[in-house]
Amino acid sequence: MDYIKQLLDFILHLDGYLFTLIQDYGIWIYAILFLIIFVETGLVVMPLLPGDSLLFAAGTFCAGVVKEGETAQLNLWLVLGLLTIAAVLGDGLNYYLGKTIGLKVLTWKIKGRQIVKQSYIDKTHEFYEKHGSKTIIIARFVPIVRTFAPFVAGIGQMEYSKFIRFNLIGGIAWVLGLTLLGFFFGKLEFVQKNFELVIFGIIGLSLLPMIFEIIRQKFKKK
């Protein structure tokens, strides 16, 4: 419970934490940002890390943030490049884990019975063959879902050449979109005074693609 509280505090006060981290760690802040994005997208057990809000906050600091006469600033091109690589590599690792470890776990047997029926695994494979590309891109913009999507793609044995192509598209769109959003709008007075509200807004907007897809599928079935 304490971990959740600390994580929530970190997410809601990213501007303050990031300012301190930049001041304290200097060039190493890029490694810290890289690691957070890589872990959030690459390890299926870490879906609660603040990917969307971190990218927006990082973009804000690329434009420069001044507090009490001190300036904290990140290099925009370095942030865009490193975090795009982190996002793509993270999804790649997650896919690999799903295809190797994940698939093996699903085929484990208890008292002679497979944990997950082979028919379910086959259906997952068929789903990613038909809709995998769209899922990989949309999932990038949905918290938690983006951590599980490449793992499930691996379990579903989605063709790797197709996965890596849409992994690149999704990763680039996600990092550039949210980072540049922070870069151009993060310094607005309203945003700086209502940073917590903006973060909640970003999280809410991130859920819209999933909600839209669910509604679309329901209408499609009727």
Q: What is the number of independent domains?
A: 1
The backbone outline, from C-alpha atoms, is elongated
Listing every helix as H and every strand as E from the N terminus to the C terminus, the arrangement reads HHHHEEHEEHHHHH
Q: Provide the gyration radius in Å.
A: 19 Å
Strand order of the largest sheet: 1-2
CA-CA gap between termini? 42 Å
Verbal overview:
The chain is mostly helical. The chain has one domain. 77% of the residues lie in helices and 5% in strands. The chain contains 10 helices and 4 strands; from the N terminus they run ααααββαββααααα. The chain has helices at 2-12, 14-25, 29-42, 51-62, 76-106, 118-139, 145-155, 160-185, 189-193, 195-221; strands at residues 65-67, 70-72, 109-110, 113-114. The chain has a two-stranded antiparallel ribbon. The chain is elongated and about 65 Å long.
